[in-house]
Amino acid sequence: MKKSQGMIQTIQKRPRGRPRSIITDTKPGTVRALDRGLTLLRELAQVGSIRLTDLAIRADMPSSSTNLGR
């Protein structure tokens, strides 16, 4: 609590840690990164050679999810 000019204000603390994800499309017990990687591999196996941006579009994922992180 904080007193200012005779009034008492309550200051709310921000929650600690990383905010929870709003994405709930994964099944319980799955690892999201592994699930995404397997989806990309399935798409890649169907097409053969493809640009990463096009692969992301085919898999309906953000293009940053296909980044190799080099």
Low-confidence stretches: none
Structural class: alpha+beta
Q: Compute the number of strand runs.
A: 2
Strand order of the largest sheet: 1-2
Binned strand content: 5-15%
**Largest beta-sheet characterization:** 2 strands, antiparallel
Supply the number of helical segments.
2
> How would you describe the shape?
elongated
Rg, alpha carbons: 22 Å
Note the gap between the termini: 48 Å
**Helix-strand string:** EEHH
Fold blueprint:
Layout: E1 2-4, E2 7-9, H1 32-47, H2 52-58
Antiparallel strand pairs: 1-2
Could you describe the 3D structure shown?
The chain is α+β, with helices and mostly antiparallel strands and 70 residues long. The protein has a domain at 29-64. The protein is built from 2 helices and 2 strands. It has helices at residues 32-47, 52-58; strands at 2-4, 7-9. A two-stranded antiparallel ribbon has the order 1-2. β1 and β2 form a beta hairpin. The relative contact order is 0.10.
For the structure shown, list the relevant keywords.
two-stranded antiparallel sheet, 2 strands, 2 helices, 70 residues
Summarize the structure.
The protein is an alpha+beta fold. The protein is built from 2 helices and 2 strands.
